[in-house]
Inverse folding.
């Protein structure tokens, strides 16, 4: 560590604070490189935003920082420096973390500096994130409740207070992992919240899936807020373990969960600034009036089901992958000729399950897919500290999340490309064997691999836990084709081949979460909001910015989305909860807009 790195960071941050305090855009501009980026998670913009380029960064930072009342705090650990061409610290790059705050909140900042030829430090990347609201901290750690009264009270003279059910301030639709994480956060922030799900328990959706299903990410990156997985759990928990965990988590965290409750429709009443939500529960239609509605139905909730000519005459089973509950308790799958349409994760998992139970399986690859050995995902997670070794390094999961999510998405692309190249070099024989059987491998449109495919599309990949070997060895057949016709006991492929078929499984993915908006609210609302998830594109066609409509204000007042994989759901559930808490307490904040900056 260079001894002068800390003072350089402190001096730069003080200059930024002074410039923002004065609303001096010109001075703010001088503190940044031409190609800089700033990523803010709620702290200053009350939004989740990334700004690229010195002009845009300076304009937004000056306006948002001035209004929020940005203040520096103490330096945190992890001050790093790198010597420049001159070989001295005076010309080196340096980066570090700081505690920062605004009038309403506390947070952290991470900045990367480089000294220019004029001797001035300028920032290339700035990251700011809210971690808590002042005077409204979570009831955890040193703020945890005592749990019992410290004074004896006579119960005979104090009649119990009779209270009816409290109208939820926040209604969360979807009671699996995404909804529970958010509800747990809101519980600690004392925001009245109700979680509803059409299934009877939080874990039921997982419990009904096929028996071979496991988490595809290692357990250390999948933990929940406030409560760690048992240390005896496997690296990749089974779907039944995870289902039991969800049920247990809801009880331990005292989440207000109501199962077997289906949301029928929702309408926002502008005059009352609240929702009118009709739910079907216990055979009765009940109307709820929350101020905020959160759709936590997940990215994989509404199946994308294609239709084929002649499918009504098919004599076998035709199911979407979401309806496939496995072969273990269903002899009807044993020894049958099964064709799977699709080649992503579900297709591979189901192919493996069918083969292990005697099925004769063919996979139809309709488009290129990214396949990689699961060890590479585990290694990538370990680089961020999500490993057994990382769990012993003294840093919390929250700290690991901050570090791994501090970089704007576009700046992650070079590292992802390098990671892909290293994989291709290490597994050259593996990919050669796949190519021999006709497999069409994808590394994403720009070679950034599965991580950016996940961020951009939430599909297109498979982390190999055995199914690729079945394809290579010929135990599962592969065809590069579409289905053009379904006949009573066979399917006709676009290649002209007719294949006998007893069971047809459609591993064809899911619709965008905006489909829930169209169904529950209106098509007009869905159109105004646009796609949910995925990065937008800039004027030059390049991906930029943040995930669309996730964990932040949308075009529909009072409507929010919570979802993603377990890591992002955990990390951003805090940011969504803080935004909802601020509204619940009627704090004086304003969401940043470009019009305001001008």
């Amino acid at each position: 560590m260079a001894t002068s790195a800390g003072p350089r960071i402190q001096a730069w941050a003080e200059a930024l604070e002074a410039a923002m305090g004065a609303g001096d855009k010109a001075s703010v501009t001088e503190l940044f490189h031409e190609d800089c980026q700033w990523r803010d998670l709620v702290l200053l913009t009350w939004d989740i935003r990334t700004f690229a380029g010195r002009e845009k960064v300076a304009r937004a930072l000056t306006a948002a920082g001035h209004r929020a009342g940005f203040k520096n705090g103490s330096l945190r650990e992890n001050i790093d420096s790198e010597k420049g061409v001159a070989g001295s610290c005076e010309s080196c790059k340096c980066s570090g973390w700081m505690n920062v705050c605004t009038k309403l909140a506390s947070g952290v900042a991470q900045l990367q500096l480089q000294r220019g030829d004029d001797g001035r430090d300028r920032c290339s990347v700035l990251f700011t994130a809210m971690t808590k609201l002042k005077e409204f901290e979570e009831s955890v750690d040193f703020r945890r409740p005592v749990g019992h009264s410290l004074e004896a009270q006579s119960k005979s003279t104090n009649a119990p207070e009779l209270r009816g059910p409290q109208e939820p301030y926040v209604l969360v639709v979807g009671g699996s992992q995404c909804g529970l994480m958010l509800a747990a956060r809101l519980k600690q922030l004392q925001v009245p919240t109700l979680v509803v799900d059409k299934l009877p328990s939080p874990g039921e959706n997982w419990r009904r899936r096929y028996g071979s299903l496991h988490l595809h990410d290692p357990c250390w990156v999948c933990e929940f807020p406030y409560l760690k997985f048992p240390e005896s759990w496997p690296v990749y928990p089974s779907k039944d373990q995870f289902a039991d965990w969800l049920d247990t988590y809801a009880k331990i965290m005292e989440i207000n969960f109501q199962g077997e409750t289906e949301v029928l429709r929702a309408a926002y009443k502008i005059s009352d600034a609240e929702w009118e939500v009709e739910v079907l529960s216990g055979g009765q239609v009940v109307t709820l009036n929350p101020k905020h509605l959160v759709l936590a139905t997940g990215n994989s909730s509404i199946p994308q089901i294609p239709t084929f000519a002649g499918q009504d005459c098919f004599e076998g089973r035709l199911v979407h992958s979401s309806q496939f509950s496995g072969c273990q308790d269903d002899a009807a799958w044993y020894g049958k000729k099964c064709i799977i349409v699709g080649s992503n994760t579900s297709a591979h998992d189901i192919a493996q399950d069918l083969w292990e139970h005697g099925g004769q399986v063919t996979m139809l690859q309709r488009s290129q897919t990214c396949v990689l050995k699961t060890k590479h995902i585990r290694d990538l997670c370990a680089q961020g500290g999500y490993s057994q070794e990382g769990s012993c390094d003294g840093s919390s999961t929250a700290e690991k999340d901050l570090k791994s999510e501090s970089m704007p998405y576009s700046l992650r692309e070079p590292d992802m490309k390098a990671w892909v190249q290293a994989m291709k070099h290490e597994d050259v024989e593996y990919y050669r064997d796949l190519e021999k059987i006709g497999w069409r491998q994808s590394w994403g449109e720009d070679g950034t691999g599965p991580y950016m495919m996940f961020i951009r599309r939430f599909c297109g990949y498979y982390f190999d836990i055995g199914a690729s070997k079945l394809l290579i060895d010929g135990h599962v057949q592969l065809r590069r084709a579409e289905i053009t016709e379904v006949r009573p006991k066979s399917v006709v492929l676009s290649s002209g081949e007719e294949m006998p078929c007893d069971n047809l499984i459609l591993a064809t993915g899911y619709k965008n979460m905006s489909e829930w908006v169209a169904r529950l609210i209106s098509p007009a609302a869905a159109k105004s909001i646009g796609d949910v998830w995925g990065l937008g594109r800039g004027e030059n066609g390049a991906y930029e910015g943040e995930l669309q409509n996730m964990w932040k204000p949308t075009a529909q007042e009072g409507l929010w989305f919570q979802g993603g994989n377990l890591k992002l759901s955990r990390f951003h559930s805090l940011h969504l909860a803080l935004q909802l808490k601020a509204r619940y307490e009627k704090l004086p904040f304003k969401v940043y807009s470009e019009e305001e900056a001008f």
Q: What stands out?
A: The longest helix spans residues 566-584. The two ends are 41 Å apart (CA to CA). Residues 84-88, 158-164 have pLDDT under 50 and may be disordered. Residues 70 and 100 are 7 Å apart (CA to CA).
